[in-house]
C-alpha cells in the first residue's frame, strides 16, 4: 500500500486545521504513505459539500457510518465535539480503519476506557490509532523533551504550566457547544487543560499521580445567538497542583478568562542542573538555562528552533523563517503515516489519551471534594 484514503468527520475549526495538514504533509515530508483526501462527513448536505469544495475533499457523506463501509477509506480522522468521539472511534477501529481522534480523547473515563480497549483489539490486527495532542509536535516542545531525556536539566523538580485564553472574558460572549457539558465534557479543564497536562507529561516523561484542585464558573448564563439565554454547565477556569511519578511538584492553570491572553500555553520545567521555558505565543522559541555556566554570564538564553537539526524544522524553510500553529498538525500527520507504514504504534496513543482523561477526572473530583485525589491507575 502506497496511499491511504482518509475519511474525516467534522469540518469546523479542527476540520479546517486537519485538512490543511493532509494537504501539506505529502509535499513537505514525503511520508511513506501518501494521504488521499477521499471523503468528508457532516450532517448538513449543503454545508459539508461547501466545506469539501473549499478544503479539498473529493466526496462527501452525510452519515459518518458510510465512511466505514467504503473500501477507499482506510483511515478515519475524528474532528467532532467530544460527545461523539467514542462512538465513532470504536466503530471505526472495529471496522478495521486506522483512527486519528482529536483531544481530549473522550468526555468521560468510561468512554476513554472503551476507546483504549478498542484500540488494543485493533492493534492486534495491525490497525493503528492516535490522539491529536498537536502541541507535542511544536519543534520547540519536542526539543525540550529531547533535552530532558539527555539529562541537560538534571532531575526534574518543578513543573509550572498554564494555558491562558480570554475569549470568554466578556459576559456578553455568546453560548457555544463548548459551554455545554453534554457536548464538551468539561470547559477550560478538558478543552485547554488537557493540552498542558499532556505537554507537561510529554516533556518530562513523567505522569501525574495525584492532584488538588479548584474550579469555577464565573458567568453561569450566556446569550444564545438567536435570542434568549442558556445555562453554562462547564468550568470557566481550573487550577490545580499535583505530584508526578518521578517526584516532581507541578502546578497547572487553565482559563478562558485571562484578559489579554489569546492563546498562551506556557510551561517551565526546573531541574537540578537547568531549566526550560516555552510560550506558545512565541512558538519558535525555547528558553534554556544551564546551571553549569559561569555565574558572571549565566542566565536563560533563547534558542530559535528553526535550524535543520531541530525537530521537524528541516522539512520547511531556511533557518529563521518561522513556523506557525498549523504546522503542528502537519507534523502530526507525518508521524502517524510513518507509524502506519512501519507497523509501529504512534504516540500519543489512546492509552495516553486515557491517562490524561483520568487526570481530568481526578481534577474534577478534587474540586468537588476539596481534597487530594489520586489519579486512577497510578502507582
Automatic annotation (TrEMBL):
The keyword Magnesium does not apply. Gene3D superfamilies: Dihydrodipicolinate Reductase, domain 2, NAD(P)-binding Rossmann-like Domain. Residues 5-123 form the Gfo/Idh/MocA-like oxidoreductase N-terminal domain. The keyword Oxidoreductase applies. Residues 143-276 form the GFO/IDH/MocA-like oxidoreductase domain. One of its GO terms (molecular function) is nucleotide binding. Pfam families: GFO_IDH_MocA, GFO_IDH_MocA_C3. Keywords: Oxidoreductase. InterPro entries: Gfo/Idh/MocA-like_OxRdtase_N (IPR000683), Gfo/Idh/MocA_oxidrdct_glycsds (IPR050463), GFO_IDH_MocA-like_dom (IPR055170), NAD(P)-bd_dom_sf (IPR036291). This is Predicted dehydrogenase.
Amino acid at each position: 500500500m502506497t496511499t491511504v484514503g482518509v475519511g474525516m468527520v467534522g469540518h469546523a475549526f479542527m476540520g479546517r486545521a486537519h485538512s490543511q495538514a493532509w494537504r501539506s504533509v505529502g509535499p513537505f515530508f514525503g511520508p511513506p504513505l501518501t494521504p488521499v483526501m477521499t471523503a468528508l462527513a457532516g450532517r448538513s448536505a449543503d454545508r459539508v459539500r461547501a466545506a469539501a469544495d473549499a478544503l479539498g475533499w473529493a466526496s462527501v457523506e452525510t452519515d459518518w457510518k458510510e465512511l466505514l463501509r467504503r473500501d477507499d477509506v482506510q483511515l478515519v480522522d475524528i474532528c467532532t465535539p467530544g460527545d461523539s468521539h467514542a462512538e465513532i472511534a470504536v466503530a471505526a477501529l472495529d471496522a478495521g480503519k486506522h483512527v486519528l481522534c482529536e483531544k481530549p480523547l473522550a468526555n468521560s473515563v468510561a468512554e476513554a476506557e472503551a476507546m483504549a480497549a478498542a484500540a488494543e483489539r485493533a492493534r492486534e490486527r495491525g490497525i493503528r490509532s492516535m490522539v491529536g495532542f498537536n502541541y507535542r509536535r511544536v519543534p520547540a516542545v519536542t526539543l525540550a523533551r529531547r533535552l530532558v531525556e539527555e539529562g541537560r536539566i538534571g532531575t526534574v523538580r518543578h513543573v509550572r504550566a498554564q494555558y491562558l485564553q480570554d475569549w470568554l472574558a466578556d459576559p456578553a460572549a455568546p453560548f457555544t457547544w463548548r459551554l455545554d457539558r453534554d457536548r464538551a465534557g468539561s470547559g477550560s479543564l478538558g478543552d485547554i487543560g488537557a493540552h498542558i497536562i499532556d505537554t507537561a507529561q510529554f516533556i518530562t516523561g513523567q505522569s501525574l499521580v495525584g492532584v488538588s484542585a479548584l474550579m469555577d464558573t464565573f458567568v453561569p448564563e450566556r446569550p444564545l445567538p438567536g435570542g434568549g439565554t442558556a445555562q453554562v454547565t462547564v468550568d470557566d477556569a481550573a487550577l490545580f497542583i499535583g505530584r508526578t511519578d518521578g517526584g516532581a511538584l507541578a502546578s497547572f492553570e487553565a482559563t478562558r478568562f485571562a484578559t489579554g491572553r489569546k492563546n498562551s500555553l506556557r510551561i517551565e520545567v526546573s531541574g537540578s542542573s537547568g531549566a526550560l521555558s516555552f510560550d506558545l505565543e512565541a512558538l519558535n522559541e525555547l528558553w534554556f538555562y544551564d546551571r553549569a555556566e559561569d555565574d558572571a554570564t549565566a542566565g536563560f538564553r533563547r534558542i530559535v528552533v528553526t535550524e535543520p537539526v531541530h525537530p521537524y524544522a528541516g522539512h520547511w524553510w531556511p533557518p529563521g523563517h518561522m513556523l506557525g500553529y498549523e504546522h503542528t498538525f502537519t507534523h502530526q500527520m507525518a508521524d502517524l503515516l510513518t507509524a502506519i507504514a512501519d507497523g509501529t504504534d504512534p504516540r500519543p496513543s489512546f492509552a495516553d489519551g486515557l491517562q490524561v482523561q483520568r487526570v481530568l477526572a481526578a481534577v474534577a473530583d478534587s474540586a468537588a471534594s476539596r481534597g487530594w485525589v489520586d489519579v486512577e491507575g497510578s502507582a
